[in-house]
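ingest -> fold -> write
write: protein_1
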Amino acid sequence: MGFDFQHMMELWPDISKAFGETLYMIGISLSIAIVVGLPLGIVLFVTDRGLFLENRLVKTVLGFVVNMVRSIPFIILLVALIPLTKLLVNSTIGPAAASVSLSVAAIPFFARIVETSLREIDKGVIEAAVAVGATPWMIIKDVLLPEAKTGIVQGITITIISLVAYSAMAGVVGGGGIGDLAIRFGYYRYDNTIMIVTVIILIVLVQILQQLGDWTSKAIDKR
């Protein structure tokens, strides 16, 4: 069975629903990743050796937790977080449930990107701010974030694209979205039309997101 346009149109409501669920999952998990991952990445940077909030214990503990979560394959993380998912959303299937695992995976991923972006800042700029008596909050707000904004925006783009891939994987355990549609129709029913359509949708979505990320990054880069 090849590509059947009429069959695709018959399933279009299911495809549209799955696409909406994918955007829903990505939106929630990205928002949580930014809200939690951004400050986490900042803390990882400013507590490092030689920085103005140096703290070996905090740096070691947070670094270990971040590395531990990042080292777990996402499919295993999905299963391992079932009790937490059940507790938070009272369900283990559907887009809301999948968003829990996606968020947990995205937070340390984005935090490391933020930390890396901050490391690219000229240390002299930070030392100058410390020398004039700027408080840690002022340095973070007025020096670190403005200087690293281009890298952080690029990091958001990378995180979104990773979440697209992870959200498709969440379909394996009934997470909803494009991946769930591909598994239920494309894999179990040997429906090549759905498989082709879902792959095309994911490719187009990633291309659009990458272009938007690149454009935004260039727009805010005043160097």
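write: protein_2
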Amino acid sequence: MQKEKLLPSKLPYVGTTIFTVMSGLATREGAHNLSQGFPSFDCSPRLSELVSHYVKNGYNQYAPMSGVPAFRESLAEKTSRVYGVDYDPETEVTITSGATEAIFCAVTAVVYPGDEVIVLEPAYDSYVPAIDLNGGVAVYVTLDSPEFKIDWQRVKERISPKTKAIMVNTPHNPVGTVFSKEDLNALADLVRDTDIYIISDEVYEHIVFDGAVHHSMMTHPVLQERTFVCGSLGKTYHTTGWKIGYCLAPKALSKEFRRIHQYITFSTVTPMQYALADFLKLPEHYEQLGAFYQRKRDRFNEALKASRFRFTPSKGSFFQIVSYRAITDEYDYDLAIRLTKEIKVASVPVSVFYADKKDDKLLRFCFAKDDEILDKAGEILSKL
């Protein structure tokens, strides 16, 4: 038998993403899946009806490369309404096949071989591969647990003449922190009068808690002019499987962004875009999202109070991280696997979000689940 020839890898350090690993294991083990970040409940029946309407009425061919005009207009109107920032739907709003594609296109648009990109870790796992595939160099600034506050002086010290971009994420996945107005000002002070771009992952923009406000990069004039704001309607409307994201960026940035986008997916699924264009005109659905998920967070956290896990309530996203130091000193990856197999509750080990797999004895649980699942998982975890 001829020996299989191995293809040299551009990402030799990358295996199967942790989300696929843990969701697959949860399925095989019949475990409660609090690992991968997707809701266990469906979208609004009204949104489903709108999709059905457009499918049945023939809106099933290619959408324009930059997105259905009505959808881009609705998104621009909603952005102006929420943030008081105006983007031209014709030249500054681009629809993508998920926020991951938007992030990749933004990185590809500005990063050339040898450029440095500052990454605040723990960081979502698609950021660094996008940098590497474009020949860039990730420069890490590690946020310290348990508060994970950004030390902007430390960020400043990592900036060099080769720095091309800084990647930010608020509300944060996996740790659930949110940027303050002071954070925006500090970041603006760092990049003012430079050619450094900002790539901002804001997919959980409407999921903030306890009266907090989402401070988008677009709301600061110094940041807005140099930022690719990457968002997701999948997180907002419980439709992660539709993979519909977007990028908001000034005209010059969007022009280069679209050069890349057109050769990755060209365009995104058509009937969903028309449906979302209509649905965005009903603001109550995203205005109530924070309160909806805060109830989920509080329910799960209440169930964990009787446990030996320790945590600070998440400030945003639909993730809660917990410390298990009082339970075991196991490596977090091993513990996540063991708990999925033995007690049938799946989580994500936080070490996977660090370049050196830093183990702070933390697990990430997704509370975007039905109440019965949260109650049962909390009950099981409290017995550890």
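write: annotation protein_2
Residues 289-304 form the longest helix (16 residues).
The mean pLDDT is 96.
pipeline exit 0
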